[in-house]
Amino acid sequence: MTKFAAALLLATMLTPVTVQAQTPPPAPAQVEPIAYTERTLANGLRVYAIRDTTTSTVSVNVWYDVGSKDDPAGKSGFAHMFEHLMFKGTRNLVDEQVDRLTEDVGGYNNASTADDYTNYFEGVPANHLQRLLFAEADRMATLVVDPKVFASEREVVKEELRSRVLSAPFGKLFYIYRPMIGYTTHPYARPGIGSIEDLDAATIDDIRAFHATYYRPDNAVLVVAGNFDPAQLNQWVDQYFAGIKKPARPIPRVTVTEPEPTGPRSYTVYEPNTPLPAVLINYPLPPSNHPDAAALTVLNTIMAGGDNSRLYQSLVYRDQLAAQAASFYDAKQSTGQFSVYAILAGGKTAVDGEAALRREIARLRDEPVTAAELAEAKNELLTENIEGRETPQGKAFTLANAIVVDRDPKAADKRLAELATVTAADIQRVARRYLRDERSSSIQYNPIESAPAGTKGDTITLAPTVKVAELKIPADIVIHTAASASERIAPPEPGAPVKPVLPQPTETRLANGMRVIVVEKRGLPLVSAALMVEGGGALDPSGRAGLASMTASLLTKGTTTRSATEIAEAVESLGGSIASDAQWDGAGVTLTVKSDQLSPALGILADVARNPAFAAEELDRARTQAIDGVTVQLKDPGALSRIVATRAVFGDSAYGNRLGGTPASLGAITRDEVMAAYRASWRPERAALVLVGDIDAAGGKALGEKLFGDWRGQGNAAPLPGAAPAMPQPRVIVVDLPDAGQAGVVVARPGIARSDPRFYAANVANATLGVGFSSRLNQEIRIKRGLSYGAGSQLDARRGIGPMSAATQTKNPTAPDVVEIIAAEMRRLGAEPATEAELATRKAVLIGSFGRATETRSGIAGLVGDFVVEAVPLAELQRYGAAIEAVDPRAVQAAAAALLDPAAASIVVVGDAKQFIEPLRKAYPKVEVIAAGALNLDRAALK
Q1: How many helices (H) and strands (E) does the chain have?
Q2: Are 743 and 912 a contacting pair, CB within 8 Å?
């Protein structure tokens, strides 16, 4: 199919709030429709192709029209568990070979299960396309279901449930209760993650029947996007997919319709592991392809799109009632949901939160939104859609979602045009139609400690009126078995490589010492900007952890001429987004905006960086929000284990702090200290303006000169950190978090500085240990034993010596086992040389990840910004791949022996200690046990 005759000029219909005059006005940003071809094979497989010869990669997506709504009766979570098994063996592929074909060559793969679909997607160098088509066809046609593999993967899914739902604060609210209270009849009511009991109810026969019933060519969509030859693609698709038979039996479909609510439903619960109260309200909405979808999309953006949105401005900023407030439009094939929620601030109640949310919903019904709000939301959506089409995977996902959910491949482009025509009257009309109190279902979600004596709260279960179907086992199921080594068909060899085009930065320096770095990347009307300064959390003084982060965050909360609200309104009216934060060795303000609005948007960035007001009321507001954020993390075993491990490794030095601060340190920060921290780091000689996208070097320099040429630092710059302090002795620490749904496990030790000549060898060693699905830790902990949803390691090289850590989450009783596995693998990597073959795959992982960061404008800006604060030459963009490739096994073993040895590591386990402390104490008699409530994160002793 050819693209529309003209681009969708949505931007011409949007009138942003004026920030400053521009003469002459720039051309309006355009969103090119997705140009694709389509065909349908005789067996019903629908094939779509999006060609892009500017990239060196290709994305393969296979979407199946089956999701959690199709879970068999009594087996919620089944479609999601089945998704996991699709990465196992087929007749011709051994277990995890899809990972070998993707991750091991520098690509990636993943999958997700939604209510309406299950999608499998891979991104690889373009010369590996044929191999991926072979693999996707083989698992569609000949999946092998092995009892042992099935049992192991079911345990992995249980760990995912524990991680996402049972141990994470608010996990039950969003994953379990939200769907349950929102539906009375449709199977959307069942949580897609399932339950331990329902997962245990699944059988091998169920798995085989599910594959035979739904995983068939006439229930699938194949989308290929990227650099390929169209004729060759058609030949390969015919070769691998055309021979897959289409079963004669019909595909079961959910035909249940959710009835119109007859009245409001409300619930109050008291849950463990809940640091702050929360409230959530659902409203049922029509299907995704309904004519009102565009108006609902704009409505959702007005409510929750950025810091100038209604929910943020009223609940979070103005009234300081909530730590977080947002909405999301959950569009589906059938009845969807509009959900609004608030996580309340400390000392506030869920009752207050619900009243505030309902007031904001009533405003939508009772009065039209303003012209400025309407234009702002449309501009934000335009930028969001441009960003969504930056990569082959982004375009493939957009198209596939339109095909499967909206039932129309043109839906995404049509929706863009429809957004431009939405009026304030449309917003009010849909709010009055759908967002009425009598149509709502709500839940007040409270800490169990706040329950009145003798009160248990409501019990929320699946409504007995929800209609679900049994899975009928087809009579003609073929049980596939793995081919013998002699019969197995190997994947085809890769083709000739397509050489990637690496970013080429251009740097100039202004007279005041400020660097201006431009990376020209055309093709989309988009620019990502970052103003980076050296310094960061490494400069935080003792007792003031979080000072750099607080200082950076306040930049966007008011200048000498603009309030925080005016800053958010000005940027978001241009369709942009602005943020500021600190890293360990630097800080920055980042901005992404359509290129036709770059000049006014960059003027705002310059204002927040050069003229911050640091108003006392803004400091108090930011302090309260930051403390609420820490409060949530203190109830999360994974997050808390990482915080404690950092302090154990670095003691009282700045790198031992929590970067964002602790309740005590945040409470102690004064306005004078914030202003002093700003003057010490935010100065031109320590700054770099990074511009990436639809701009050239001359244009970037001119903007830099205009907006920053007269910038001068105030006072003296703070000296950057010097030699690394002495590291404390390693410890074994257990933080007792009673009733935690999982244990967080971290093994951490000092690593290296970014300037260390062993950096590349150490990175390859770390990647071998714990980067990617095929890494040793993930192989041992998840794949072989099913003890975790995932395990990995990180080497955080900074200006100073940063940490090396390995981490995972597991059920409480297996925490000691996981500790031993991690320690053993760290030790083994330094004791035994890795093979050239294994290291080749890990190098590909590193180079591929680096390459994917360069696919997007914001990704390149992030890389360059990191180089600035870590004092890395910009030539690293060109040399990184070669430097990684040059690492040999001897260098990897030496780096591992010096930097991964667990003898120098601290071990931290956060969880329900009574379930694991005795076996852990047998292995580590000197283990320290600290009650979570007694933790002192501001001291090296931690108590």
Answers
A1: 32, 23
A2: yes
- Residues 113-145 have pLDDT tens digits of 999 999 999 999 999 999 999 999 999 999 999
Of 350, 312, 349, 170, the closest CA to residue 625 belongs to 312
Q: CA 123 to CA 61: how far, in whole Å? A: 9
Write out the two tokens for 519: 């990376």
Burial 276-315 (b: 16+ CB within 10 A, else e): bbbbbbbbbbbbbbeebbbbbbbbbbbbbbbbbbbbbbbb
List CB contacts of 202: < 8 A, sequence separation 6 or more: 75, 78, 81, 154
What is the spatial distance between Cα 880 and Cα 919, in angstroms, rounded to a whole number? 44
List for the chain the helix, strand, coil content (%; round to 5). Answer: 45, 20, 40
Q: 3-class SS at 675?
A: helix
State residue 593 phi and psi, 5-degree precision: -155, 160
Half-sphere exposure of 771 (CA within 13 A, CB side): 27
3-state class of 585 per DSSP?
Answer: coil
Cα R_g (the chain), whole angstroms: 28
Question: Given the structure tokens 């929910």, which residue do they identify?
Answer: 311
Q: Which amino acid is at 802?
A: G
Amino acid letter, 709: G
Going by their DSSP bridges, the two strands 322-330 and 336-344 should be labelled as antiparallel
Burial of 257: CB neighbours in 10 Å, binned 0-12, 13-18, 19+: exposed
Tell me the one-letter amino acid at 788.
S
Task: Write the pLDDT tens digit of every residue in 813-864.
Answer: 999 999 999 999 999 999 999 999 999 999 999 999 999 999 999 999 999 9
Q: How confident is the model at residue 2 (pLDDT cuts 50, 70, 90)?
A: very low
Cis peptide, bond prior to residue 24, ω within 30 of zero: yes
Reply yes or no on whether the pLDDT at 431 is more than 90: yes
Contact 857, 525 (CB under 8 A): no
C-alpha 589/C-alpha 601 separation (Å) is: 12
**537 and 582 in contact (C-beta within 8 Å)?**
yes
Q: How far is CA 395 from the centre of its chain?
A: 18
Phi, psi of 75 (to 5 degrees): -140, 55
Q: Which residue has the tokens 């935010």?
A: 682
Strands 586-594 and 526-534: antiparallel
3-state secondary structure of 240: helix
Which tokens go with 715? Answer: 């006072």
**Cβ contact 304:327 at 8 Å:** yes
Residue 277 is given by DSSP the state -
Helices (H), 585-636: 598-610, 616-633
Going through 302-377 in order, the beta strands assigned E by DSSP cover 322-330, 336-344
Burial annotation 633-654 (CB, 10 A radius, 16+ → b, else e): bbbbbbbbbbbbbbbbbbbebb
> Distance between CA atoms of 793 and 765, rounded to whole angstroms?
10
Q: Which helix (H) or strand (E) holds 298?
A: helix 293-304
| Secondary structure E strands in 496-650 | 505-509, 515-520, 526-534, 577-582, 586-594
162 secondary structure, DSSP code: I
Distances (CA, A) of 127 to 122, 376, 440: 13, 42, 52
For 841-891, the three-class secondary structure string (H helix, E strand, C coil) is HHHHHHHHHHHHHCCCHHHHHHHHHHHHHCCCCCCHHHHHHHHHHCCCHHH
Is residue 787 within 8 A of residue 155, CB to CB? The reply is yes
